[in-house]
Write a structure and sequence with these properties.
One of its GO terms (molecular function) is ATP binding. It catalyses: ATP + H2O + polyamine-[polyamine-binding protein]Side 1 = ADP + phosphate + polyamineSide 2 + [polyamine-binding protein]Side 1. Its EC number is 7.6.2.11. The complex is composed of two ATP-binding proteins (PotA), two transmembrane proteins (PotB and PotC) and a solute-binding protein (PotD). Part of the ABC transporter complex PotABCD involved in spermidine/putrescine import. Responsible for energy coupling to the transport system. The protein is elongated. It has two domains: 215 residues, Rossmann fold; 111 residues, RNA polymerase II/Efflux pump adaptor protein, barrel-sandwich hybrid domain (OB fold (Dihydrolipoamide Acetyltransferase, E2P)), CATH 2.40.50. β9 and β10 form a beta hairpin. By secondary structure, the protein is an alpha+beta fold. A six-stranded mixed β-sheet has the order 6-7-8-3-9-10, with helices on both faces. Helix content is 26%, strand content 29%.
């Protein structure tokens, strides 16, 4: 909790999480959801108003940052412009009183890990953004922390560099076996890099799971809508069937809660099929968008509900029904999820 004037703001609401040793764990959520606050608590930059922070079973709740085996890579590189790459990486070790010979060895190893040995004598302004980010990583890794915290470290990079650094971070984590706790609001980043993801909203932890689990089985509407693209369709659920437009019913999991709910269906699980008596759900084709490998096709149900179908262009020859065409709509088996709102 934080005090803002006369008000008390709850930044994190009863968050309890167990992060496994040696995993790449991502805290994912929109700006202001509390993910950076949680990271700062682990780092020791903030003190929780209640609860404990345990590392390998040891209570570090009140331990100062410099006495925690934890290092942080921030969104801003925070490199010293007057120091060389080598000096930047070794600065923290020097402040810890590490012997000069040991600093030399640790800096050399850290620069080797991020593949910057040949740039050790350059200044930060002589490096690209991606190279500067690697220096910040090397500096954080040099003391051999047990946990590395990464606070949206790739957000300032362009798309190509960001992709390269995603691969680099995953490689480093596998090679070192260090626990990485990564904060991002980028869903694709979380899905492609993480062993597990914790989805946050408004100070609460909504769901924890492997990327495939989070994507295919979201626990509520927020998670379904925030993770990737999804179609959200209002429905009335009764007796393992969900009724949508014009009393059209489709089968759902028998364990689904009954009543008024929202269905979630990923665009890649929406099929455009010929209109027939075996296909109760129909739609009018709207606009389509070509993305190279696939096309996104707008479908308008009878009540005006819009859903998107994503079709692989290689499989369909790139052919899309023209706008206004009436088509049948089917969903892949098991693809419809009934959400708790």
């Amino acid at each position: 909790m934080f005090r803002t004037g006369q008000q008390t703001v709850v930044a994190l609401n009863d968050v309890s999480i167990a992060i496994r040793k040696g995993e790449f764990f991502t805290l994912l959520g929109p700006s202001g959801c509390g993910k950076t606050t949680l990271l700062r608590l682990i780092a020791g930059f903030e003190t929780p108003s209640s609860g404990q922070i345990l590392l390998n079973g040891n209570d570090i709740t009140d331990a100062p940052p410099n006495l925690r085996p934890v290092n942080t890579v921030f969104q801003s590189y925070a490199l010293f412009p007057h120091l060389t790459v080598r000096q930047n990486v070794g600065f923290g070790l020097q402040m810890q009183g590490v012997a000069a010979s040991e600093i030399t060895d640790k800096v050399k190893r850290a620069l080797s890990l991020v593949r910057l040995e040949d740039l050790a004598d350059r200044k930060p302004q002589q490096l690209s953004g991606g190279q500067q980010q690697r220096v910040a990583l090397a500096r954080a890794l040099a003391p051999s922390p047990e946990v590395l915290l990464l606070d949206e470290p790739l957000s300032a990079l362009d798309l190509k560099l960001r992709k390269e650094m995603q691969s680099e971070l995953k490689r480093l984590q596998h090679e070192l076996g260090i626990t990485f706790i990564f904060v991002t609001h980028d869903q694709e980043e979380a899905l492609t890099m993480s062993d597990r993801i914790g989805v946050m909203s408004k100070g609460s932890l909504l769901q924890i799971g492997a990327p495939r689990e989070i994507y295919n089985h979201p626990v509520n509407r927020f998670v379904a809508d925030f993770i990737g693209e999804t179609n959200l369709i209002p429905a009335e659920v009764r007796n393992a069937k969900a009724t949508i437009v014009r009393n059209v019913s489709i089968p759902v999991d028998p364990a689904s809660p009954e009543g008024a709910h929202t269905l979630a269906v990923r665009p890649e699980h929406v099929r455009i099929v010929p209109v027939s008596g075996d296909v109760p759900l129909t739609a009018k084709v709207g606009e389509s968008v070509y993305f190279g490998t696939d096309s996104h096709i707008q479908l308008l149900l009878a009540d005006g509900t819009e859903i998107i179908a994503r079709h692989q262009n290689e499989a369909t020859g790139g052919e899309v029904p023209p706008p206004g065409t009436e088509v049948g709509v089917a969903f892949a088996p098991g693809a419809v999820q009934v959400l708790e709102d």
